[in-house]
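dumping this here before i forget
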Amino acid sequence: MIKRILKEVKEYKLASFLAPMFMIGEVLLEISLPFLMSFIIDKGVSQGDMQQVMLYGTLMVIAAFASLFCGAMSGKYAAYASAGFAKNLRKAMFYNVQDFSFKNIDKYSTAGLVTRMMTDVTNVQNSYQMVLRLGVRAPLSLICAMIMTCIINFELSTVFFYAIIFLGAILALIIKFAYPVFEEVFRKYDDLNASVQENITNMRVVKAYVNEEHETQKFNKASYNIYKMFKKAENIIIFNTPAMQLSMYGCIIAISWLGAKMIVGGSLTTGELMSMITYTTTILMSLMMLSMIFVMLVMSLASIRRIDEVLDEKSDIVSPANAVTSVKDGEIEFKNVGFSYTTDQEEENLTNINLKIASGETIGILGGTGSGKTTIVSLIARLYDVTEGEVLVGGVNVKRYDLEVLRNEVAMVLQNNVLFSGSIKDNLRWGNPNASDEEMIRVCQLAQADEFIQRFPDKYNTHIEQGGSNVSGGQKQRLCIARALLKKPKILILDDSTSAVDTRTDYLIRKAFREDIPNTTKIIISQRISSIQDAQRILVMDDGKIVGIGTHEELLKGNNIYQEVYETQMKGSEA
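structure:
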């Protein structure tokens, strides 16, 4: 897990190496200062030799400035390496998500992925920077200071070993109890992000229903859960501070008491005792830094595991070796197709689908909610893979195609029409990045979008807000249809994509399809019979099965479901 994460250091390996190297230089120079100070006291001040004071004083100044330089360079490279590492982690996660199939995407919530890319990566970044600096400084300072105390007086230095054993036991207990709490905290972060995202995205609905108080309560609940979990974690970690202070003051008292006796006995000098006390502070500060690192790593391990889950997730839909790189035409065939969103084969969403659609044919699909309408068209572009049977496009099994080639020839306008922030041109060019202005105008005329675009002051340069919030539902649908047409696909799928337009506009769109793209296979899913009644064939679906197929007139005579829907809509129209 950690090995996979560290692969993303990549081009920042040199900076990751230089940061601890400079830190080693800083520590070694700092460790020399108390030693030089003991010489000033014992060889200079005690003996009244100002020459020795000046010599060792000059060396201390040089060492201090050199230590300052090394510390600054270490901080610079550590910040550079950790920021680059975080950038690469986010990039790797984002790129991996782009390859996800719909099935992979269904495993993660949008808020959960955002939390992983932002909060979790930031935790790992902070930990990495801390490890590059404090992770080197703390143990090195500890080891060097321990060696110096042993050189000065081994008997006194044994005091530190007891302190280290005591603190090690406390840290082990803290890590044991704090780690599960931090894991839970980041799951709560997902809930908070989901609450914020949902509220902001659907703010118009919230205000329309005057439901701000409910949303505020929902946010407060998610926020309070995070506060409560963090408080629980902090209540565990807080034991680290009193344990450190107890060790620090205990060591100082023990060394002062034992050192004073040794000075009286003549086995220790005053300068050596001063150095021992200074090294005591260094050792205990190193232990404090180590404890901080351990606490940060406990938090980061939970984040690392969540990041690793995304990086480890592999798409179950990939292009095969020696993939077919061209689609002959828009012919579609389903052969004994069965499909289930879960691994439980007893809960099939599609059962025994057999259907052949000729290239250029117009097919309508009608059915109730959950009948499998969207599912069946999702298999054509291989957004999901069949669990039984096979789907053929242009006479070739879709599993044999290069995914990019296949999906470029199958344009889908989904139920949820999505526009991105940018101009109308920017949104249309999702269908074809190299499209000319004339091509964009033409497809917008086919989709009946040019009329309202021309009324905007900036026309095709009109800015679209995120999610298309500054255009109506019908306008959004027509722009999405135009975007799909710009791909010049062999197969065009409209999944209830004209539900927000009036019947006249719907008719004009279908008329344009018949006259201007006759060779494109068109599949239109709709709850409105008027949108599909002039299709060459209409499928009626129920409970994942095709329960009727034929023209509008044939289904009116022989299909009960179609008759019921038609009569209901006709009565509603008359009313």
